[in-house]
Amino acid sequence: MAIEHVTDQNFADTTSKGLVLVDFWAPWCGPCKMIAPVLEEIDGEMSDKVKIVKLDVDENQETASKFGVMSIPTLLLIKDGNVVDQAIGFQPKEALTNLINKHA
User: Fold this and answer.
1) Residues labelled as active-site residues
2) What is the pLDDT of residues 56-90, one digit of tens each?
3) Where are the alpha helices (DSSP H) in 1-104?
4) Beta-carbon neighbour count of residue 24 at 10 Å?
5) Which phi-psi region, left, alpha or beta, contains residue 65 (left: φ > 0; alpha: ψ -120 to 50)?
6) What is this structure's pTM?
């Protein structure tokens, strides 16, 4: 399953059911570019447990500000519409898989 890009308009629908890892990012952000292949790898291996989506903070400021995102990348783990965990900054694959498995 490919990583989906979400917007302010479809964010609530996309994160309302199941386990969703949201990557708050921007095209100009270096650490965001570093974490992208890690997320692709996790998506390929764990798509049965978690859905991974990306939200561009420059284009979707309403959602970013609603969740108090101050620095990027910020990763929020949302289960059935509620934030259950988060990670800020670049994270190695092992840290992210542990985060997901804790709530899967």
Assistant:
1) 29, 32
2) 999 999 999 999 999 999 999 999 999 999 999 99
3) 11-14, 30-46, 61-66, 93-103
4) 24
5) alpha
6) 0.97
